[in-house]
Amino acid sequence: MHIGLIGASGRLGTLVCENLVQQKLTFTKIAREDLQNIPSFMQLLQHVSESMIILDISLPVGTENICNIINNLEEKNLKQIKGLVIGTTGHNDRQKQLLLSTSQKIPICMVSNFSKGVYLFEEILKAKTSQGLTVTELARALGFDMAMTEIHHTLKKDAPSGTAITLAEAGKIPAKQISSVRVGKVVGDHSIHLSADSESLEIKHTAHARKLFAEGAIELCKNIYTQAPKPGFLRKEDFFIS
Amino acid sequence: MHIGLIGASGRLGTLVCENLVQQKLTFTKIAREDLQNIPSFMQLLQHVSESMIILDISLPVGTENICNIINNLEEKNLKQIKGLVIGTTGHNDRQKQLLLSTSQKIPICMVSNFSKGVYLFEEILKAKTSQGLTVTELARALGFDMAMTEIHHTLKKDAPSGTAITLAEAGKIPAKQISSVRVGKVVGDHSIHLSADSESLEIKHTAHARKLFAEGAIELCKNIYTQAPKPGFLRKEDFFIS
Amino acid sequence: MHIGLIGASGRLGTLVCENLVQQKLTFTKIAREDLQNIPSFMQLLQHVSESMIILDISLPVGTENICNIINNLEEKNLKQIKGLVIGTTGHNDRQKQLLLSTSQKIPICMVSNFSKGVYLFEEILKAKTSQGLTVTELARALGFDMAMTEIHHTLKKDAPSGTAITLAEAGKIPAKQISSVRVGKVVGDHSIHLSADSESLEIKHTAHARKLFAEGAIELCKNIYTQAPKPGFLRKEDFFIS
Amino acid sequence: MHIGLIGASGRLGTLVCENLVQQKLTFTKIAREDLQNIPSFMQLLQHVSESMIILDISLPVGTENICNIINNLEEKNLKQIKGLVIGTTGHNDRQKQLLLSTSQKIPICMVSNFSKGVYLFEEILKAKTSQGLTVTELARALGFDMAMTEIHHTLKKDAPSGTAITLAEAGKIPAKQISSVRVGKVVGDHSIHLSADSESLEIKHTAHARKLFAEGAIELCKNIYTQAPKPGFLRKEDFFIS
After folding, report:
1. pTM of the predicted model, to two decimals?
2. C-alpha dihedral (A217, A222, A225, A231), degrees to nearest 10
3. Which residues in chain A come in under a pLDDT of 50?
4. Which of B156, B172, B211, B222 is catalytic?
5. Would you call D182 and B147 a contact, using CB atoms and an 8 Å cutoff?
6. Number of Cβ within a 10 Å radius of residue C220
7. Residues of chain C scoring pLDDT < 50
8. What region holds the Dihydrodipicolinate reductase N-terminal domain (chains A, B, C, D) (predicted)?
9. Does the D2-114+211-238 domain belong in CATH 3.40.50.720?
């Protein structure tokens, strides 16, 4: 497997490169100019003898560019691309439309957080209990009220975090019940507080180092490469485990 | 509904009585001598005009005595007893056999912890995620290792707690991975620690006051009374929610 | 010791009464009408043969009324009152002036939170480390940034809590770094998060049951009664420990 | 400042080297053979033109070797060594004796944990509160009982951890009140639980990444270098802050 990396110069991109080197995986950094037209992309593709997964952790415009390239590649070249993993969020309607058409050509997997623990957290909230209710529904039926706190470093600009929003959706927690704390160098803590009379439950995820997001992204690429799914939108649920 | 309470003088029993008074529910304390033979029990039953749920929070021998009584009651008297809720553990084989025969006469519900939060905790660990794995199985498949800590007051004699053992079974956590702490006046904390590379998840239940166990026991009795199930062993899952 | 209780009908007042009964301590509920003038108060005082501590957990106006009474009591009647403990906050300037003059007649102790753990928490933040810095100053000098989260039940109206404000002052945490969560039935959680590069410290207080505030108030009254200090404003630090 | 590093090939040593390179600090790895005799050490010293701090994170025998060298260096060569920082524990009596004689020649600082947060934690437990009691003594006087849990990865062999032992001493927590959990990849969690009736306090330190120990060690060397203390045993308290 060869990784084509869009967004290599970003914070996550730098960590992905470091990790790919450590794992001795071959990869190519795909710059904006490589995506300008088919010839530029073909020039880059020439140097890659293996089949590849493209990992896009840039910005929505990066997603747009790679989709435009893929939609216009010749069949024989398209065969070399085994999947597109997108860790970018905030695509506009045109870009979403473009993703839809591209998904008919290659498998696409969209993931807002590459941490396995956050994925597990989301699965917990939506998991089915013995009576058919989800965990979240059972908690409410038993009289538990729910709220969330999320803590990140002081340089984080958005609040609440994207992960908090995803988890709140899974747990049916209203937006006003999410509290954001910005302090020091915290990589990422997300806690759901469940409270009933005289008892409480807390489910808490702690990201200890940013590199786990890089490792998660690479493992997802590997799993998709190995399982070689057909074109279409992939459920991330099917590829988080090898 | 009338509650027949076996074990009224114990720590939990005292709280149950207080709570029954607060809720203005009628109840009868059933002492050991009331269970000695049918006539003694009938004498006690005479004063109860309503149909009743029997709540046994005594010791295994209490369970044995009430089962012997029930098995020998005349049909018309048996009708008055709508269910038997047992919060006692540690029954021997003969007592289990007795429970089996009694369950053919009245509905029996056996519960090791009357807290709704502990019940939710257990359900979480066994809930089915989107791919068909349980939460516990998914955690392991994603590379998370699991351990438990439980903290109780210094007067608690057994370690690990019965609840810890139940949760460890639900989470397939080996006994040697349960750590018990005995400190101060802690009512009951149970935490499951999930650890993978650079991230961790913790699920923690805190019992803030012992009265929640009394309230949970009474609510379970009410739910069984209302739903009026047929004789047999009841799944506690079906009666924790009203 | 006899307790004169102002504010007996409030939430905390009810618990104080329950606890006084449990501890077999004698007490008198002092109503608003008892404080209208000296004769009404004297009528009430007649029935109390012991010397007493007055515990005011009403509203600022209650504090005002008792101060007016005390300031106008005859010397021989004043002797019966060994101290005034005030758990009310939000006094206006006139009321503060009144407290000052009253403190020349009897010992007064003002406490915003009757929990021993919150008192310990505050002491921790202000304690002197080996080099002469306070804990808070040392934390900052070592590069730790600080923030606070406080969690209370959904019926609590003020945010942040008075306790959070007191702790934030002790820890020199700016008001905007306090996050308030209102969920379920939480009695009161206060956490200070200290974050530096790749490590964090958390100091967390949990109030498990409201009765601890009642117990703390009564114990403070007892300690003042036993130590019999001179008139003046007492430091709560001197009376939290018996 | 130049760092002379003993124990460069160990787990912590590797991280120290990485960090020294990142900080563009010059350093020399001192191997066992460099410490065999004065000529070997002088050969190594020749290549170092700056004055240096020696950081020993090897084993007790490494400490022994460097002490023997220092005790036998000529005065003019000794001047080049500004201090010895030792992160090794478990020295025997002979080695302790040797350290004592060496401390008459150069400043020596012995530290069992290079994390600033653990240092802060220890200082908290021993800090003086307003009445003259330490935090630990005040907690006990207020009725709080104390216990500790420490969690580390499954490859850690010793239990309880050295840090747990240090903190337990500072908090006067008996050894049997320390619970050790070994799970997954946890870098290092240490929690002290304080419990009293209906309330609890928890003080918890989390090490998120092993590199913080490397950074702490280097910063300590820098602070000693800058402050240039006289020979003798240094209090780590005086050099954790720049």
Report:
1. 0.92
2. -20
3. none
4. B156
5. yes
6. 25
7. none
8. 1-114
9. yes
